[in-house]
Write a structure and sequence with these properties.
Number of helices: 13
Strand order of the largest sheet: 2-3-10-5-7-6
Number of strands: 12
Largest sheet: 6 strands, mixed, barrel
Structural class: alpha+beta
Shape: elongated
Helix content: 55-70%
Number of domains: 2
Distance between the termini: 32 Å
């Protein structure tokens, strides 16, 4: 009963000074709202980064790039042909920790259909390209081993290419021209959408054409060289072991000339992790400072309240109230201000997150844990800064308090 009586007195005191109480809560409201908004922006950025990384092959994907040789090695450069299609075959056969290998040759060509021209990136690939880069076929099929053997003039197109060239026609089975040569559309890739504000950050996945790599090399490039060589590992925890296996196979095939480099996404993952931690700490400090300012406001107002209610405190002590009763009353008032301010801060934070989600390039993500953390912090700040005024009120001498004018 005593607790509910103190709670009622706290609410009565706050209601009797509405403007003062609202101004006191303002710092807490802004602090909680800023914490929720900033944490949501960071969380959204983190999720989008992970989704984007997954859409481009995930952390299991590695790339084998060309490496400029040192002067001493240039005397033997003609012995190595660089990255070739046969390298990809050897890697898949001899590296037990490799799941897929995707040799790729890319060129920009002008494509046409019924007089409509469209310039787009054309990739000579195998079926592993689909698996490594997380693509799905929406209609038809993808490139097969049979297409590679026959050097078939078939192609698989993205939805943007379909819209640009075929308009309202269904492209599957139609003939189109790539760099002046006739190709049949045998597949259409699923449309990919990941909105960052008003921009589709995965729009590039809809705007390309793939053909068999053997057809690309036979009809367009005239050699066995590759533009890209991508590898997907079976286990991302064995990256170092896989890198060494790749190097051993390629060194042997390239006459022990290290004219290549193996790039993993381990560094990118670590960099992304460090950036998220840095942003979380930095923005959390900004929001935390706002809450601390709110807490100082609570302490100042409570001190002013103690001074204004000194005679009231003296009367209560004279009527038998203990120090604990007075201490509890002022602590409850500070707690009510911080709790109510925290609730309004959460509501304002939700509104701000909704507003931020409508801005381009910003995709905030609400997390219940972050909301609870911000609210709990506001309550703790209110209690912390309410202790000093409450103790000051409880320690007032009853006789001096009764004499206070």
């Amino acid at each position: 009963m005593m607790f509910f009586s103190i709670l009622k007195m706290g609410f009565d005191e706050i209601r009797s000074h509405k403007m003062r109480s609202m101004l006191t809560m303002l710092g807490v409201i802004l602090g909680v709202a800023s914490l929720i908004t900033l944490f949501s922006v960071v969380e959204g950025s983190k999720k989008k980064s992970l989704e984007w990384m997954k859409e481009v092959g995930g952390f299991e994907k590695m790339s084998v790039s060309d490496l400029e040789l040192k002067n001493a090695d240039k005397l033997r450069i003609n012995r190595s042909k660089g990255r070739t299609y046969q390298d990809s075959v050897a890697l898949l056969a001899k590296c037990d920790s490799v799941k897929y290998v995707s040799p790729e040759v890319s060129k920009w060509f002008t494509t046409s259909y019924k007089g409509k021209n469209y310039r787009v990136g054309v990739y000579g690939v195998t079926d592993n390209f689909l698996k490594i880069n997380s693509y799905e076929v929406a209609y038809g099929r993808y490139i097969t081993d049979w297409d590679l053997e026959r050097r078939s003039r078939v192609c698989v197109i993205g939805t943007q290419v379909a819209k640009e060239l075929f308009k309202n026609e269904f492209p599957l089975g139609k003939d189109m021209f790539i760099n002046g040569q006739n190709f049949t559309v045998v597949g259409i890739i699923k449309e990919y959408i990941m909105m960052a504000g008003k921009r589709n950050s995965l729009g590039w996945k809809n705007n390309w054409i793939s053909i068999p790599i053997t057809t690309m090399q036979d009809r367009f490039t005239g050699n066995d060289s590759l533009t890209y060589l991508s590898v997907q590992v079976k286990d991302s925890t064995r990256l170092a072991e896989t890198v060494q296996q790749l190097k051993n196979v390629l060194l042997k095939r390239h006459y022990y000339l290290e004219d290549f480099s193996v790039d993993t996404r381990e560094e990118a993952a670590e960099r992304m992790k460090q950036q998220n931690i840095m942003y979380t700490v930095l923005l959390g400090c900004i929001g935390g400072i706002s809450l601390l300012v709110g807490g100082i406001g609570i302490m100042n107002i409570m001190l002013a309240s103690v001074t204004a209610r000194t005679r009231e405190i003296g009367i209560r002590r004279a009527l038998g109230a203990t120090k604990l009763n007075v201490l509890s009353q002022f602590l409850v008032e500070a707690l009510i201000i911080s709790v109510v301010g925290g609730i309004f801060g959460v509501l304002l934070g939700l509104v701000l997150v909704e507003l931020f989600s409508r801005l381009p390039e910003i995709v905030p993500a609400l997390d219940a844990g972050n909301i609870l953390l911000a609210f709990s912090f506001s309550v703790c700040v209110g209690l912390f800064f309410g202790v000093y005024p409450a103790r000051k009120a409880a320690n007032l001498n009853p006789i001096d308090a009764l004499r206070y004018e």
